[in-house]
Amino acid sequence: MSEKKSSGKMWGGRFQQGTARAVEDFTCSVHFDSRLYRHDIRGSRAHARMLARQGLISDTDCAAIITGLDAISAEIDNGSFEFKRELEDIHMNIEKALSDRIGDAGARLHTARSRNDQVALDLRLYLRDQCDCFEQLLQDIRRALVELARNNFGLIIPGYTHMQRAQPVLVSHHLLAYYEMFGRDRERIGDCRKRTNVMPLGSAAMAGTGLPIDRKSVAEELEFTAISRNSMDSVADRDFAAEFLFCCALIQTHLSRLSEELVIWASDEFGFVDIADSFCTGSSIMPQKKNPDIPEIVRGKSGRVLGNLVSLLTTLKGLPMTYNRDLQEDKEPVFDSVDTVSACLEISADLLHNLKFNHGRLAAAVHGGGFMTATDLADYLVTRDIPFRRAHEITGQVVAHCLNRGIDLKDMDLAELKKFAPGIDAGVFERLSVEGSVASRVSAGGTANIRVEEALARAEEELGI
Ligand code: ARG
């Protein structure tokens, strides 16, 4: 292995040999952690100001550090900053550039700080911002669902259990089920933000520092609600990242379920929805095809998003206290989930705006058999003082009778129905209609138009529509 000496290592003092090129390549993370540069610089500014307030560096040095960091930030923004692989990561790239620019003042920035608490700080700052972005993206998809639910209010769709027709429901009720899921996801992201919003800087390498720092003032400047309580935990902890990845995994799971539904609904067999041409793609061989690729890809991306959670948990599970370089493996799964889930949330919201329900196919489906109002008949019998288990049995016999004759419940005449239960009267037919069935489900959270109207109004109020 070549032992080519490479210059400018920030930790080079105790080393006699330069780092092997292969080692530099293997340990380098700047090609992905450069994404943290804004947060790294923000943290360094706050740290430098605190050092100056505490008299650990002079005000002149502090001013030079802030100006230097601003210039580096601008260079990275405009793409002129040269990242050096041999400087390992974003933290040392920035620190070295600062020292090159302002000399000794730059070399004072790392006083009372380690990359271990620095990287923990950066990741927390980054994820705190991402929590805010995700809260917004979740509101956007919830808004798209509510708008679609409002525009299709009154439309009836078969509700399924076991993928078998179960009971008729309003399309709006079905869509608002996803509104609820994404609402819980949003709350979960909010909870994750709370635990992310704790300031680790000042833990230094892992034991704290003997220099007279003021951690609380750094936390205030960086808008953290608290400082971490144990220096060892502070540099070892990635719970907040794992929690964020879990939130991502569950959001993606919900998106995948919605996508699966859309793929089914868009099939010729169902034909419940039509996705706009601009949101579909074709086949290179079958000219007739219009494929629902967007929901398929969203569904497909669940694999990597769930994998990212497992990846980080697996990295963490074998680690003794405190910082271990394994922790460098935390970032790529986090970045990948951020990118993947935010893209999926955005495109799925757009897709909902490009979706039309096919009224004809839905009407054919809800009126096309499946005995979806059988429970209504059983409930009706209960109102005729028949115990529910007996009512269930009688209704089962009526269904079997209809199946034999190839007719639907609503095609039975009253005299025939009375043979099964003499107490049945003409009022039953209202209950056997699909519309009557939907309208009757007035229990809190049920699909009756009046309940769904309330749910829609509540959702619109929550979203400020
Ligand atoms: N690049 C490292 C990471 O992402 C930064 C911390 C390295 N600390 C150290 N002592 N080598 O975790």
Summarize the structure in words.
With 465 residues, the protein is mostly helical. The protein has helices spanning 21-27, 30-33, 37-53, 59-78, 90-102, 104-107, 115-151, 171-196, 215-221, 231-236, 239-266, 293-300, 302-317, 331-353, 359-367, 374-383, 388-405, 414-420, 428-432, 434-440, 449-463, and strands spanning 156-161, 164-170, 198-199, 226-227, 273-275, 355-357. Strands 1-2 form a two-stranded antiparallel sheet. The protein has a two-stranded parallel sheet with strand order 3-4. A two-stranded antiparallel sheet has the order 5-6. It is elongated and about 100 Å long. The structure holds arginine. The site of arginine (ARG) has 9 residues, from helix 7.
Proportion in β-strands: under 5%
Radius of gyration: 31 Å
Mean of pLDDT: 95
Give the H and E element order: HHHHHHHEEHEHEHHEHHHEHHHHHHH
For the secondary structure, the number of strands is: 6
The helix fraction, in percent, is 55-70%
The coarse silhouette is elongated
Task: Enter the CATH topology name of the largest domain.
Answer: Fumarase C, Chain A, domain 2
Number of domains: 3
Could you name the ranges where pLDDT drops below 50 across 5 or more consecutive residues? 1-6
Strand order of the largest sheet: 1-2
How far is it from the N-terminal to the C-terminal residue, by CA? 65 Å
The CATH class of the largest domain is identified as Mainly Alpha
Q: Major β-sheet, in short? A: 2 strands, antiparallel
Structural class per helix/strand content?
Answer: mainly alpha
Q: Report the total helices.
A: 21
Question: Would you identify the CATH H-level superfamily of the largest domain?
Answer: Fumarase/aspartase (Central domain)
The CATH architecture classification of the largest domain is Up-down Bundle
Bound molecules: arginine
